[in-house]
Amino acid sequence: MTSPLTTPAAPSSAVRWTPRLWGTLLVLCAAMFLDALDVSMVGVALPSIGSDLDLSTSTLQWIVSGYILGYGGLLLLGGRTADLLGRRQVFLVALGVFAVASLLGGLVDSGPLLIASRFVKGLSAAFTAPAGLSIITTTFAEGPLRNRALSIYTTCAATGFSMGLVLSGLLTEASWRLTMLLPAPVALTALLAGLKLLPRSEREKDHNGYDIPGAVIGTASMLLLVFTVVQAPEVGWGSARTLLSFLAVAVLLTVFVLVERRSPGPLVRLGVLRSGNQVRAQLGALAFFGSYVGFQFLTTLYMQSLLGWSALHTALAFLPAGALVAVSSTKVGSIVDRFGTQRLIAAGFALMVVGYALFLRINLDPVYAAVILPSMLLIGAACALVFPSLNIQATNGVDDHEQGMVSGLLNTSVQVGGAIFLAVVTAVVTAGAPEHATPQAVLDSYRPGLVVVTGIAVAGLLITLTGVRTRRTTKSVVVAKSTSPEADRVPVRD
Questions:
Q1: If you ran DSSP here, which 8-state letter would residue 489 be given?
Q2: Which residues contact 188 (CB under 8 A, 6 or more apart)?
Q3: Using an 8 Å Cβ cutoff, are 312 and 166 in contact?
Q4: N or C: which end of the chain has fewer CB within 10 A?
Q5: In this predicted model, which residue has the larger pLDDT, 340 or 3?
């Protein structure tokens, strides 16, 4: 398939990105930026929302959980829908829904309506995320071209998350509604630009119908899994409700596998998981995001509850990690070309383990530069290496007509990993928290949670190391999608 956006050229050094190609990438990056921005901004605004709308703590939780439920529960459906109905069409419609939901979320005066708007935003993100990633992987040829594009794409996610932390602290001072409204004009601008710049994509022609049973069962199982994990810390992990919900999830997933094995046009082709690299990418995404979300949760509690730092002060403490990602991630593509994804992911997980372990030194009167900053820099470097490499590894070697499906799988692993491991870390900390505790006792209850976070990163490292080879092998891939049979090929290391 030839991309009309790249100039057909032979050597990789001669490949030129046209202005329209840059515009396409910027539109997709804007959507990823918005997803990350929205996730990080809402957390800081929760106390103000609760006070203004008179919401209980359990209701406030659903402002966050509603987004996670819509996002994590519908990613598989979103990815396959992009393949079947056209990536451009799905991306633009979902982005428009995101803009409208953002506007409504900033205008409502009721908790249930705000939660509903958050769920709709998560639902729309479940379609924009896999559609956007698959547009990149089908527009940029596998190899150095795609690696560079994906490194820029993932940089925008890190930048959005970091900026969201800072912007939320500033905007909430004026009104929490601004944190809800801000994404709307950005999404609308990206939508208008996308109508002109995004390449038209054809629907998959050779599919064997729509896998309606798989879509219903798969979506139901993911929704129930995320809902159960989110609610488990509140109702109890050993409660009858939680255990029965997990049993129902297991039954649904078993039925889903049976349906997919027999479906002529499955929602998820299970054969894709026969690839060791694919399985390691999915498990790595679980461990990577799960450990980071748990770390951020505990660190935020530590800084605001124990040290008494403001929301803005806390955001600035995280900023070095985000800044390091933003500065360095664009270089990761060329590093992947040289060393391969497995080695970069392993190196990133190693840095992450050291960063988490160093954070165990925290006390009630820390010196930021000596205690907290080293961990932030190590974790920032780890994120810069791991996140783009996981995206590259998951999408390499996958046919164009299945890029949406694989993108949905990867994003599902990220979201489910975050939900599950955050719930686990929360349970560990809650179990060790004594009543009427002193600040030191509260800090001591955080340490087992930090140990769990470190252990999750260690598991990710061990999984990744199973794919690291002592000798690198090379394969040839097309650098630019070209109709020319003489198009040069360059070696890319796995």
A1: E
A2: 99
A3: yes
A4: N
A5: 340
